[in-house]
Design a protein that fits this description.
- The protein has 211 residues and is of the alpha/beta class.
- It has a single domain, classed as TIM Barrel (Alpha-Beta Barrel).
- The protein has ten helices and nine strands.
- The strands form three sheets. Strands 3-2-1-9 form a four-stranded parallel sheet.
- Helix 7 links the parallel strand 7 and strand 8.
- The longest helix is centred in the first third of the chain and has 12 residues.
- The protein is globular, with a radius of gyration of 16 Å.
């Protein structure tokens, strides 16, 4: 079972070097934003449950060809099954509670739980997980912390998220225990508000290594 958990989330995370972390406030932005990011080479999209329309955003984006749409800010069992019902392909949590790990056993979509400390990581290992979101990455020790984790936790790989920008991402991606990184720098708030898809597309291509 443990290998299955790892394989399911790896199948998602290995699709792109960067996972855009998106908080979408206008439903009309959902499809063109997803189309822009997919075309730029970033097909794995994390829609955070930070807006009241997040579930509908997931429903709309999942129909965009090539998009692999998941949900972030999944905190509870109810959240997990709500995003599953909305058509999310995966779920990401900023942390990991026993209740959420138990819920993930009953879910049809893979969970990427968050950790910031060795103890939290060990709890995840006890539940059969070897893949984690490292959050908040920069304020939790950043690259130095991930290098330190590599010693006692050689079997673990991460998706660091939090405080990472275009300048910092390559340093994380160079680490052997990092699969992908999460961030929102390729979708600046002002560009999204202006629906400047050209700018977002250019930033996304750069993040995907296509510039």
């Amino acid at each position: 079972m443990n290998d299955t958990i790892t394989q399911r989330i790896d199948a998602v995370l290995r699709q792109a070097p960067v996972v855009p972390v998106l908080a979408v406030s206008d439903l009309d932005d959902a499809v063109p934003l997803a189309e822009t990011l997919v075309a730029a080479g970033l097909p794995v999209l994390e829609i955070t449950l930070r807006t009241p329309i997040a579930l509908e955003v997931i429903r709309r984006m999942r129909d965009v060809p090539g998009a692999i749409v998941g949900a972030g800010t999944v905190l509870t069992r109810a959240d997990l099954f709500a995003v599953q019902d909305a058509g999310a392909s995966f779920a990401i949590s900023p942390g990991g509670t026993d209740a959420l790990y138990d819920a993930a056993r009953d879910a049809d979509i893979p969970l990427l739980p968050g950790i910031a400390t060795a103890s939290e990581l060990m709890r995840g290992l006890e539940h059969g997980y070897k893949r984690f979101k490292f959050f908040p990455a920069e304020s939790s020790g950043g690259i130095a912390a991930l290098k330190a984790f590599a010693g006692p936790f050689a079997q673990v790989k991460f998706c660091p998220t939090g405080g990472i920008d275009a300048a910092k991402a390559p340093g994380y991606l160079a680490l052997p225990n990092v699969i992908t990184v999460g961030g929102s720098w390729m979708v600046p708030a002002e560009a999204l508000k202006a629906r400047d898809w050209k700018r977002i597309g250019a930033l996304a291509k750069e993040a995907a290594g296509r510039d």
